[in-house]
Amino acid sequence: MSIRIALFIKLSYYTFVMKKNEEYVVTCIDETNQAAGIVKIDDMVVFVPGLLKGEKANIRILKVQKSYAFGKIMQFLETSQDRIEPACKVFNKCGGCQYQHIDYKAQLKRKRDHLENRVLKRLEDVEVRDVLGMEHPFYYRNKAQFPVQIKDGKILMGFYRLHSNDIVCCDHCMIQSKKINELYKFIQEHITLAMAQGLRHILMRHAYKTNECQIVFIGSKRNNFDDLIRKLIQKFPDIQSVVFNLNTRKDNVILGKDYEVLYGREFIYESCLSNKVKLHFKSFYQVNPVQMKVLYEQAIKAADLNKDMRCIELYSGVGTIGMAVSKYVKEVIGVEIVQEAVRNAKENCRINQIENCRYICQDATEFARKCAQKEEQIDVVFVDPPRKGMTPQGIEDISTIQPEKIVYISCNPETLIRDLILFKEQGYSCKFIQPVDMFCQTTGLECVVLIERV
Ligand code: SAH
Q1: Which residue, by CA, sits nearest to atom 10 of ligand 1?
Q2: Closest atom of ligand 1 to CA, residue 364
Q3: Whose CA is nearest to atom 3 of ligand 1?
Q4: Using one digit for the tens of pLDDT, what is the confidence trace for 107-128?
Q5: CB proximity list for 185: less than 8 A, separation 6 or greater
Q6: pTM
């Protein structure tokens, strides 16, 4: 009896202490939506990047917090059927892709399941549809922003290592367009130390339909790039725009305000759903042009439009959604905060002879407020905010206008779910979520959501 009590006391006082550098054999029980395997050792949850559900591995503990820890895979003991060999040579170093070690179909399934889990935790009865993926999920990105550094007299340009400011050089990125890969390689070979002084980023855009290319040197000092530009345009006749953008800011915002066109124009032309699109380097444009078409078609289908409808498009960028919508409805009013993008949107309507779209340069929340005060009659509202989502005030004011439908395009499931709850409180209900894979090989996910007035 006394031995039993002693054992009980001993056990209940026993606390497990995990230490850095310890190694454990573990089985992965789940995955986070950021591609980390979840493992439980005693009461500790350990996050192991890259470990897939069901896999068994020997891991080493890297960092211990109070109730959780981080570990890294030392050796696989059993691997998942979903695991494949990553196509990229620097996949394990670069922070750009998180899913290249997973078969594409299994990537899509994971994205849907993570989304559904999160949605159903906070909203009932929402249909989460299967993710619409790409046929060829590589080389899709039309824009890259390469950080540039000088280290030990050498110029480094590439991508950031995960959670770090170290640069991983990579002359063949599997998700950038092939043209951007070529431009990157050429610049890397021909840029000089004098040009790279004070340079922070090189931004490149490649228009998928027209092939036009744009290069923006972003830095704190306007160096002489003439020699490089001459070589570039000789080698790549599709370059239509080379710009220097001055950025002396201390934060991590990439673009500064002032700029100088060094060659050609400050914009390039692209084409989207048969509309010609003028694109200033400061204007936002979807990074996956193939899936952009799928995304917009889904948004238009969800809205079930007709010729009597008046629509608002909030966060309109260069007007691509509004222009695509315009042929089905009576009128579209677009709202966007970046002046250059609004200017592009207006010109794009002119170039494409679209007469029933208007674009306004204003904060979306402010515009919604004015609309609510004027008691405007609006049938459908399209919203496509940046990652941080909408504002509670904007949601309240949009709901006051009482549109029949709201089509919410989101690139961040977290803020999307938060905003859907707010819409619900305003008497709107979410009919379905249609995810579209705009960011293949990464954990990113874009969604089209239909919200209707109850
Ligand atoms: N619908 C467009 C753009 C979506 S990205 C497309 O599909 O291409 C989001 C856009 O919202 C960007 O163009 C950004 O400049 C704009 N934006 C960001 N904050 C804003 C705000 N407070 N009010 C209006 N527009 C804003």
Answers
A1: 315
A2: 23
A3: 317
A4: 999 999 999 999 999 998 899 9
A5: 171
A6: 0.94
Catalytic residue among 94, 213, 349, 411: 411
Question: Would you give the DSSP letter of residue 399?
Answer: H
Antiparallel, parallel or unpaired: β 259-264 and 310-314? unpaired
The answer to whether the beta carbons of residues 360 and 354 sit under 8 Å apart is no
| Contact residues for 73 (Cβ-Cβ < 8 A; gap 6+) | 48, 49, 50, 51, 57, 58, 59
DSSP for residue 428: E
Separation of alpha carbons 84 and 75, rounded Å: 16
In this structure, what token pair is assigned to residue 107?
């990537």
Contact 31, 53 (CB under 8 A): yes
Contact yes or no for 293/278 (Cβ under 8 A): no
What token pair was written down for 232?
């570039």
The secondary element (H helix, E strand) that includes residue 196 is: helix 193-196
Place of tokens 């249609």: 434
Q: What are phi and psi of 371, to 5 degrees?
A: -60, -45
What distance in angstroms lies between residue 99's CA and the mean position of ligand 1's atoms? 27
For residues 294 and 324, what is the distance between their CA atoms, to the nearest angstrom?
A: 12
Dihedral angle sign, alpha carbons of residues 157, 162, 166, 169? negative
List, for residues 53-90, the tens digit of each pLDDT value.
999 999 999 999 999 999 999 999 999 999 999 999 99
